């Protein structure tokens, strides 16, 4: 049975029509939508080409095992399911037909043939070739030689993987034992011969085989009928492939009449660990490959193997063919590698494939071909790859929200949530002095302990099996994309397989139910029509039911308020036609296939997670009682719940694992669930349902639902590590510190979450999720119709939580803080029902001014976490002044603020003292929240809010837009404390279309470290000219313009100039004096007329906090301790817009590409707990 086929057809004609109907996307979906429209017509892409290069070394003749009826069978089958056929059908003698009998010794070449026979039987859709190294004898190189061997030759040119000649050629190669001696592997010259083949150049070392296989006939070459190997066998059957030659030249595999502009070519070297004696052809290599010397290593005095690998990976190997024909390298080794090979692996940018058993090697080679197939077929212009966004970690888990864009421009995009684990992997490295070092590094691992992230592209590996996934119940949800789902037992990078998505009732098993009371039904809710922020127990949610009886007047009446929100088209049927459409919408939401068969369920029920991200809350071991005591052990299967918004309109909760028991067994503690506990839809999002349900290619913009990221406010009253919220008969909660029950909510631990809708609307919501096993209650709902929030724009600003002090009694108040949001959107200017123009900042030509400020979004809000009451706000006003205890105006705040706000506790007492945030007009704002003092008279004048104020810390250019939270750190500068604000600019709403702005990255020094200091209001606002531009003046850190003991006076600025239209589209992380941040390059992995969907690429920067100097030799893999250059500040990390770097424990940061950067002693960790005992709480 074939596992998959590398299907490579571009089909983008529909996009030409859509482009005439739709305006360009005015948000970051433009990186997908514009990429799809760039295809330009159907093009047949030839099959990927894979050259297998065999290191013909002495080990190939070594005995692997002595007999199949002994331990050999178990050794070979270890770790590979259903592998008896591997031995019975594929372990054959050199005739390729006869099985190797029991009692016969089996060598490594027998094992290799077995693996490749099995591998080829699993695959189609590839062109495969074989190369093998000549021996190295008499130091010859080039054509026209005699009596020598050197380099490598092509045993079989590229041919379809199903062609039997491939394996026949390999069967003809005898084991290097007896008189048929092994060959020295000369990797550099082997790759040069491949290069000559690809560009149709002259045969160079391909015919230098006079001494191969132990031949003693010096004047006869491999192809001579009388030539014999060391055992007396003819060598003709193992000579080069003459069919790919014409005279003295190769026939390029690209010269076969096909369009090879988008052909992908790969080189897989088998068993390479050591390369020797491969310098003979350096002169020819240097002549053919321009500037190859030092291409990777930086040492132009010689040509290293890594230089050749890097050159062929990045340069065009055949300029006469349209497009760029470069080579992707993979290396397979069964032991240690020397430095040259280790460096070449790094230069290739693909993982070293090591193996301990034949079965493991078979699996890993299959993984290589899977990744090749997926990459070749999903990065074509009509098919956008799955993109990983927004990683979140807790307790060693990594939760990844993934989505994919619909190929046909339909509005409904699938999404998923997948779980992996962080684990340690130990690698063996050979040092330059020959000593061996074991290095332990962190990796993201799947449920089988295999690496879950492909180092080739930073995406989930096609071979990964995520936690929560049932491997026995996977199927291709989208048969037309089956090439992305090559393994029936792995979910890999496929969005619509495995993960939490396939655990939702109705997808694989069970039924979604018509209402919440049906057996096994999904628990689905809406918010009530009227919300009270002061309701003692919160506002109960309304069941999202679809069992309306349209013959019942009560049901018809109760349906009407929901129907009014649905924006249904006019229905020209019977009198209940529009009511039935409303019910159909509700049925669709619950999971029924309304458009096809109501007796069936939709095949996927989880929508895209574009900007939301997984929020994990650890409720502790709530159900585990240790030794009969009321104390809880956090180590016993902590109850972790994951909250995530999706663009079908829901905020969802997922349960990580099954609960423990009083005496938990290993099974109950480790049961992986990933089940959806409940889903909540704000009723305002019902207006998207009809569009999503019909899923027609008429949506001018992608529908947005709950697209904002959530924040958690967790209060553990007794600090026992468990969020306990159990009801007794009196309606109270369990007080686990005493084992008794209280009678009011004051005894209960609290867990609240808050989220906005981002482009889904202008609203924010607060939910009480203190009891994760019950439906949440709604704390409050705020939108721009709520009194005091009229300036609220699109709710881009992710909420921040914390405590402030302002009251006369000096108590702390729990608050949620968010900025005014984004002023943007679309409009229907001619009233034809289709959007045709952009609003506000979505129009690149629009600029706000003091006289004409943004109509929405120029504000910062602080609200009570429990009630949603407005505590304080700053917004644009005619003058800069305090208006009331709850309002401050600033005349210069005229640009909307979509960024998350950075909160800063200057004195470490648990109270927020300052806020920092940038706006869409290049201004960085500082807000001072001076703490109240304890007084007893309660006079209104003691309300500290009247002394809160906002100031412009910096004005850095009206064309700069800040969309992401800055990082704020305290440092010592010449013995004096200073606060640094670290941030970068970039228009997140126009990642591709904004090509004229020169974006910058900043470290701003705030010299006013006393919060509430009135002199801050009169200080001079920083400008770019006040900052040291360290782009060129401070690269190595040792230049005169760099910082030594002291920080640069006002901070520094770095030009983002790694590529055209580079932007910072994420928040930075400061680690042990290093700044890590990502940038986005719109033209990255693809381009105009590219073979891949050009979604761009993200760079990871690592620079010095003090002066922006490069910290590592990132451009060359940090080899040899070379001096840093400007491009050593960054490296390519992942395709598309990368998520923010995530701090993992005290020493590591997880990058968007799945890599870990170590920073020893980094004291940072995601905090989910509020330490009790700081102050009383309101």
The Cα radius of gyration reads 32 Å
| CATH fold description of the domain at 49-371 | Rossmann fold
Helix content: 10-25%
Class per helix and strand makeup: alpha+beta
Per CATH, the class of the domain at 49-371 reads Alpha Beta
Look at the structure and give the mean pLDDT: 81
* Spatial strand sequence of the major β-sheet: 7-6-2-10-11-12
Terminal CA distance reads 66 Å
Number of strands: 55
User: CATH superfamily name of the domain at 49-371?
Assistant: von Willebrand factor, type A domain
Reported for the largest beta sheet, the result is: 6 strands, mixed
Uncertain spans, ≥5 residues at pLDDT below 50? 1-25, 35-43, 78-84, 374-395, 477-485, 624-632, 660-670, 727-731, 734-747, 934-938, 1085-1089, 1161-1178
| CATH architecture label name of the domain at 49-371 | 3-Layer(aba) Sandwich
Provide a descriptive summary of the structure in words.
- With 1178 residues, this protein is of the alpha+beta class.
- It contains 15 helices and 55 strands.
- Among the domains are: 49-371, Rossmann fold (3-Layer(aba) Sandwich), CATH 3.40.50; 965-1178, no CATH class.
- Residues 476-511 are annotated as: Disordered.
Compile the SSE list and pairings.
Elements: E1 4-5, H1 13-21, H2 30-37, E2 49-54, E3 63-65, H3 68-77, H4 84-88, E4 106-107, H5 108-122, E5 123-124, E6 127-133, E7 152-160, H6 165-172, H7 187-198, E8 245-246, E9 249-250, E10 265-270, H8 282-288, H9 305-314, E11 327-333, H10 339-348, E12 352-354, H11 358-378, E13 387-394, E14 397-403, E15 415-430, E16 436-445, E17 524-526, E18 539-540, E19 542-543, H12 553-564, H13 577-590, E20 592-593, E21 597-601, E22 615-618, E23 640-645, E24 651-657, H14 666-670, E25 672-681, H15 689-694, E26 711-715, E27 734-735, E28 740-741, E29 750-756, E30 764-768, E31 777-782, E32 800-805, E33 812-819, E34 824-827, E35 837-840, E36 859-864, E37 870-876, E38 881-884, E39 887-890, E40 902-904, E41 914-918, E42 923-928, E43 949-955, E44 967-973, E45 976-984, E46 1000-1006, E47 1028-1029, E48 1051-1055, E49 1069-1071, E50 1074-1081, E51 1097-1104, E52 1130-1135, E53 1142-1144, E54 1148-1150, E55 1156-1158
Helix pairs in contact: 5-11, 7-9, 9-10, 12-13
Keywords: Signal
Protein name: PilC beta-propeller domain-containing protein
Signal peptide: 1-26
């Amino acid at each position: 049975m074939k596992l998959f086929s590398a299907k490579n057809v571009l089909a983008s004609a529909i996009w030409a029509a859509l482009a005439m109907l739709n305006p360009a996307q005015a948000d970051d979906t433009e990186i997908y939508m514009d990429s799809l429209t760039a295809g330009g017509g159907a093009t047949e892409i030839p099959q990927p080409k894979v050259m297998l290069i065999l290191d013909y070394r002495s080990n190939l003749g070594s005995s692997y095992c002595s007999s199949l009826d002994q331990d050999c069978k178990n050794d070979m089958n270890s770790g590979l399911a259903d592998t008896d056929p591997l031995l019975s059908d594929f372990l054959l003698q050199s005739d390729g037909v006869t099985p190797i009998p029991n009692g016969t010794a089996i060598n490594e070449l027998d094992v290799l043939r077995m693996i490749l026979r099995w591998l080829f039987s699993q695959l189609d859709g590839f062109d495969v070739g074989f190369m093998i190294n000549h021996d190295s004898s008499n130091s010859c190189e080039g054509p026209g030689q005699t009596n020598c061997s050197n380099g490598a030759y092509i045993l079989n040119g590229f041919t379809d993987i199903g062609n039997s000649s491939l394996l026949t050629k390999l069967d003809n190669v005898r084991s290097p034992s007896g008189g048929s001696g092994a060959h020295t592997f000369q990797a550099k010259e082997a790759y040069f011969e491949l290069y000559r083949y690809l560009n149709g150049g002259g045969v160079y070392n391909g015919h230098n085989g006079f001494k191969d296989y132990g031949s003693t006939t010096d004047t006869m070459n491999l192809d001579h009928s009388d030539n014999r190997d060391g055992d007396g066998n003819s060598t003709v059957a193992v000579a080069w492939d003459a069919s790919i030659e014409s005279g003295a030249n190769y026939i390029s595999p690209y010269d076969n009449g096909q369009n090879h502009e988008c052909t992908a070519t790969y080189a897989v070297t088998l068993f390479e660990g050591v390369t020797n004696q491969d310098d003979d052809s350096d002169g020819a290599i240097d002549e053919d490959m321009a500037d190859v010397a030092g291409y990777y290593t930086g040492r132009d005095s010689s040509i290293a193997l890594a230089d050749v690998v890097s050159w062929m990976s990045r340069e065009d190997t055949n300029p006469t063919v349209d497009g760029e024909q470069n080579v992707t390298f993979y290396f397979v080794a069964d032991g240690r590698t020397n430095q040259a090979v280790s460096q070449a692996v790094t230069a290739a940018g693909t993982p070293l494939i090591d193996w301990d058993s034949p079965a493991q090697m078979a699996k890993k080679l299959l993984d290589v071909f899977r990744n090749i197939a997926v990459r070749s077929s999903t990065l074509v212009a009509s098919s956008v790859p799955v993109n990983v966004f927004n990683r979140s970690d807790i307790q060693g888990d990594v939760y990844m929200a993934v989505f994919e864009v619909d190929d046909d421009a339909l509005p409904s995009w699938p999404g998923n949530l997948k779980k992996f684990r962080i684990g340690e992997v130990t690698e063996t490295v050979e040092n330059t002095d020959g000593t061996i070092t074991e290095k332990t590094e962190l990796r993201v691992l799947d449920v089988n302990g295999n690496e879950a992230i492909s180092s080739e592209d930073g995406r989930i590996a096609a071979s990964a099996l995520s936690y929560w996934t049932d491997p026995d119940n996977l199927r291709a949800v989208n048969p037309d994309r089956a090439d992305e789902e090559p393994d029936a037992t792995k979910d890999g990078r496929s969005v619509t397989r495995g993960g939490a998505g396939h655990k939702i009732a109705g997808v694989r098993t069970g039924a979604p139910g018509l209402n919440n009371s049906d057996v096994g039904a999904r628990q689905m809710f809406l918010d009530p029509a009227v919300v009270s922020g002061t309701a003692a127990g919160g506002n109960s949610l309304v069941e999202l039911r679809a069992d309306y009886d349209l013959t019942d007047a009560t049901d018809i009446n109760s349906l009407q308020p929901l129907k009014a929100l649905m924006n249904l088209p006019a229905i020209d049927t019977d009198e209940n036609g529009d009511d039935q459409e409303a019910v159909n919408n509700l049925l669709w939401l619950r999971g029924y296939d309304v458009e096809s068969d109501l007796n069936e369920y939709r095949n996927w029920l989880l929508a895209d997670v574009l900007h939301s991200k997984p929020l994990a809350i650890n409720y502790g071991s709530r159900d585990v009682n240790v030794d009969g005591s009321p104390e809880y052990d956090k180590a016993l299967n902590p109850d972790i719940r994951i909250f995530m918004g999706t663009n079908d309109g829901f905020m969802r909760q997922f349960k990580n694992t099954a609960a423990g028991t009083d005496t938990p067994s290993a099974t109950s503690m480790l049961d992986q669930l990933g089940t959806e506990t409940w889903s909540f839809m704000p009723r305002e999002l019902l207006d998207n349902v009809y569009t999503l349900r019909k899923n027609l290619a008429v949506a001018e913009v992608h529908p947005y639902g709950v697209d904002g990221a959530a924040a958690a406010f967790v209060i553990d009253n007794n600090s026992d590590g468990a969020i306990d919220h159990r009801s007794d008969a009196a309606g109270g909660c369990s007080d686990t510190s005493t084992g008794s029950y209280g009678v009011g909510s004051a005894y209960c631990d609290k867990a609240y979450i808050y989220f906005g809708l981002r482009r889904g609307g202008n609203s924010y919501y607060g939910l009480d999720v203190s009891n994760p096993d019950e439906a949440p209650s709604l704390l409050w709902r705020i939108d721009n119709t709520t009194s005091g929030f009229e300036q609220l724009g699109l709710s881009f600003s992710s909420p921040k939580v914390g405590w402030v002090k302002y009251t006369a009694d000096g108590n702390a108040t729990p608050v949620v803080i968010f900025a005014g949001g984004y002023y943007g959107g679309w409009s229907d200017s001619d009233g034809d029902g289709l959007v045709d123009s952009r609003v506000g900042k979505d129009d690149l030509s629009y600029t706000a001014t003091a006289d004409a400020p943004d109509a929405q979004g120029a504000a910062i809000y602080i609200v009570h976490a429990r009630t949603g009451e407005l505590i304080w706000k700053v917004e644009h006003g005619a003058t800069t002044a305090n208006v009331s205890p709850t309002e401050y105006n600033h005349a210069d705040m005229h640009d909307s603020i979509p960024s998350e706000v950075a909160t800063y506790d200057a004195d470490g007492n648990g109270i927020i003292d300052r806020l920092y945030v940038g706006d869409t007009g290049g201004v960085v704002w500082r807000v001072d929240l001076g703490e109240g003092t304890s007084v007893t008279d309660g006079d209104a004048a003691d309300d500290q809010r009247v002394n809160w104020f906002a100031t412009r810390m910096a004005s850095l250019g009206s064309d700069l837009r800040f969309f992401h939270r800055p990082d704020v750190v305290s440092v010592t500068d010449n013995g004096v404390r200073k606060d640094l604000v670290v941030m970068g600019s970039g228009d997140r709403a126009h990642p591709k279309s904004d090509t004229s702005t020169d974006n910058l990255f900043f470290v701003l020094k705030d010299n006013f470290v006393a919060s509430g200091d009135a002199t801050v209001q009169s200080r001079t606002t920083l400008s770019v000219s006040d900052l040291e531009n360290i782009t060129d003046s401070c690269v190595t850190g040792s230049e005169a313009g760099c910082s030594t003991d002291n920080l640069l006076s006002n901070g520094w600025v770095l030009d983002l100039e790694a590529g055209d239209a580079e932007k910072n589209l994420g928040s930075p992380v400061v680690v042990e004096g290093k700044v890590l941040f990502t940038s986005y390059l719109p033209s990255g992995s693809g381009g105009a007329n590219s073979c891949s969907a050009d979604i761009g690429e993200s760079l990871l920067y690592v620079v010095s906090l003090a002066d922006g100097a490069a910290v590592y030799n990132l451009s060359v893999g940090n080899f040899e301790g070379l001096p840093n250059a400007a491009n050593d500040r960054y490296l390519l990390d992942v395709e598309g817009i990368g998520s923010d770097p995530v701090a993992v424990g005290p020493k590591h940061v997880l990058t968007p590409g799945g890599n870990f950067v170590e920073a020893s002693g980094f004291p940072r960790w995601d905090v989910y707990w509020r330490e009790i005992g700081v102050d009383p709480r309101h």
